């Protein structure tokens, strides 16, 4: 096995494809961003990196707030659209039939259709080159009550989340394990992992049989 050497570039995939809402009641906007993530747990801190030429850049700089809205399969078209159209020329909330929700502390619009909206306050703007990084503290997290189970647990992975990888949007696939499973002991953990392995092998076998059938027909 041999690897090719490429020039320096961002190849950290997959990434979340989030819709960042910003602005005010009079001038709301949405920008789709993949350069985002967690940078601290306590206090809860996050970031978004934006080119200074983007319309949303000045909106966030002026107000000092933005909202990270997680995206789903149902929001896929809107997610893509808000990343290729400028708020200078388009009312993205209206055109994508999204609902601005201002029931928060900052008055920054949230996207009601998103299962999770993370309200953020800018703490620092760091110029890096092509992009500036907005480092922010998480003020509040708003979740869709429709995904709360009977025990009061929020089922985030049941919302149909999507990811972005190398120019392509992907839906999240089958669960492969839970955090820490590799060092946990117990029959339940072993049974769950064996069942996941069995299902994966079954799917692989079905795909192989289908390919063989097609090959015979030819």
Map the helices and strands.
Elements: E1 15-16, E2 18-23, E3 28-33, E4 36-40, E5 45-50, H1 55-63, E6 65-69, H2 76-84, H3 92-95, E7 100-101, E8 110-111, E9 116-127, E10 132-143, E11 162-165, E12 168-171, H4 187-217
Antiparallel strand pairs: 1-11, 2-3, 2-6, 4-5, 5-10, 6-9, 7-8, 9-10, 11-12
Describe the structure.
This is Flavin reductase. It comes from Sporanaerobium hydrogeniformans. This protein has about 220 residues and is of the alpha+beta class. The chain folds into 2 domains: about 160 residues, Pnp Oxidase, Chain A (Roll), CATH 2.30.110; about 45 residues. Helices cover about 25% and strands about 30% of the residues. It is built from 4 helices and 12 strands; from the N terminus they run βββββαβααββββββα. The strands form 3 sheets. The chain has a 7-stranded antiparallel β-sheet with strand order 3-2-6-9-10-5-4. A hairpin with a 2-residue loop joins β11 and β12. The chain starts with 14 loop residues before the first strand and ends with a helix.
Strand order of the largest sheet: 3-2-6-9-10-5-4
Number of domains: 2
Helical residue percent?
10-25%
- Backbone structural class: alpha+beta
SSE run: EEEEEHEHHEEEEEEH
Stated plainly, the CATH topology of the largest domain is called: Pnp Oxidase, Chain A
Tell me, briefly, the overall form: globular
Separation of the first and last Cα atoms: 33 Å
* Chain-averaged pLDDT: 91
CATH superfamily of the largest domain: Electron Transport, Fmn-binding Protein, Chain A
For the sheet with most strands, the description reads: 7 strands, antiparallel
Strand content: 25-35%
CATH class of the largest domain: Mainly Beta
Low-confidence stretches: none
Architecture per CATH nomenclature, i.e. the level-2 architecture of the largest domain: Roll
Counted by DSSP, the helix tally is: 4
Total strands: the figure is: 12
Radius of gyration: 21 Å
Organism: Sporanaerobium hydrogeniformans
Protein name: Flavin reductase
């Amino acid at each position: 096995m041999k690897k090719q050497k490429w020039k320096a570039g961002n190849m950290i995939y997959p990434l979340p494809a989030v819709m960042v809402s910003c602005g005010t009641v009079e001038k709301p906007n949405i920008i789709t961003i993949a350069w985002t993530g967690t940078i601290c747990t306590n206090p809860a801190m996050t970031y978004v990196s934006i080119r200074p030429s983007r319309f949303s850049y000045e909106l966030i700089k002026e107000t000092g707030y933005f909202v990270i809205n997680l995206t789903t399969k149902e929001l896929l078209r809107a997610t893509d659209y808000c990343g290729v159209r400028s708020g200078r020329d388009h009312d993205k909330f209206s055109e994508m039939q999204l609902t601005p929700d201002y029931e928060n502390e900052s008055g920054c619009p949230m996207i009601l259709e998103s299962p999770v909206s993370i309200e953020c306050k800018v703490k620092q703007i760091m110029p890096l080159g092509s992009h500036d990084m907005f480092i922010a503290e998480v003020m509040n997290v708003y979740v869709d009550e429709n995904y709360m189970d009977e025990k009061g647990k929020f089922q985030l992975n049941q919302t149909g989340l999507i990811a972005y990888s190398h120019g392509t949007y992907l839906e999240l696939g089958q669960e492969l394990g839970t955090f820490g499973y590799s060092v946990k002991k117990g029959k339940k953990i072993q049974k769950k992992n064996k069942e996941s392995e069995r299902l994966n092998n079954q799917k692989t076998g079905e795909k192989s049989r289908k390919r063989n059938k097609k090959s015979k027909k030819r």
